[in-house]
Amino acid sequence: MILSIFKAIIGLASLGLLLILAINLWVIVSAQFQTKTPQQIQATDWASDQVPILVLGAGIIDNKEPSKVLAGRLNSALTLAQTFPNKALIMSGDHTNQYYNEVAVMKDYLVQHGVASERIYLDHAGYSTYDSLYRLKHVLGQNRVIIVTQGYHLSRALMLARGLGLQAVGLAAEEAASTRFKREFREIGARLKDFAVTYLGYQMPQPSLDFPIDFSQSGDLTDHIKVGD
Length: 229
Prior knowledge:
This protein is α/β, with parallel strands linked by helices. It has seven helices and seven strands, in the order H-H-E-E-E-H-E-H-E-H-E-H-E-H. It has one domain: 3-Layer(aba) Sandwich (Rossmann fold), CATH 3.40.50.620. Helix 4 links the parallel strand 4 and strand 5. Helix 6 packs parallel to helix 7. The chain is elongated, with a radius of gyration of 19 Å. The chain starts with a helix and ends in a 30-residue tail after the last helix.
């Protein structure tokens, strides 16, 4: 009896692991056709000035400089900014309070590397990947976008974009081999959650509807927004 129960538990666990593996593999593979190089983007209508570049936030150091992960995203965004000099760039990240402002650090980095500040718009309420993409569609009024983040994260972001009705392609940013395994491991659970959001009707908390952006005006007007304390 005990042996039968043990075998049943092992069987269910094995099926669960296979399901987790299958979902993660599907998320990764399904994003491949949407992952592009700058040269591939340039050869299509994604090169249009009307399609913005969205850089997803990540950690910052002392509220002054980007982490290695975020710097990789910004360096890849810099390549796109140079290739497409008239595209708007949207920095979407966590601006919890005056002591933690990812988007300001992101903009400062790009400006220091030669990008005109008025091209760079700040979404101060991109607290998660889902929030950033939901707000892009429903608050910022965009229907098409080029997403910039590391490859391990990009497949999940593209899946969420599809689920939200956004037309999107992505550029896989630079990533350090030293942190890749840790971040890939974290993504296993994140992909499962966002698969449930996209395909199974799992409800996420309502993202903030504050801070709309008028892209006909300078991005500098989005710099100084007070959030938190």
